[in-house]
Design goal:
signal, about 45% helix, 3-stranded antiparallel beta sheet, alpha+beta, Defensin-like protein 206, single chain
Length: about 80
């Protein structure tokens, strides 16, 4: 009986360590708020963030990411 409890405890510990190390449960608190620049946006994520900061200010903008098949610059707040 004790051997089974030890095995279960070890398995649970491994799952907890896996989740903690890969940040599976981490949620992204940022939400899409604006678009910036031309479509398609030909710059990098850093260029996108600079466009967002220049146009909308920081805060509220905390990041800029080039996303989608049409390469839109999305600003996140």
């Amino acid at each position: 009986m004790a051997k089974n409890i030890n095995s279960v405890s070890f398995a649970i510990l491994l799952v907890v360590l896996l989740v903690a190390s890969t940040e599976i449960l981490k949620t992204e608190a940022q939400t899409f708020c604006f678009e910036c620049g031309p479509v398609p946006f030909l710059g990098t994520n850093a260029d996108c963030f600079n466009c967002c900061k220049t146009k909308y200010g920081s805060p509220p903008v905390v990041s800029g990411v080039v996303e989608g098949s049409e390469k839109h610059c999305h600003c996140y707040c």
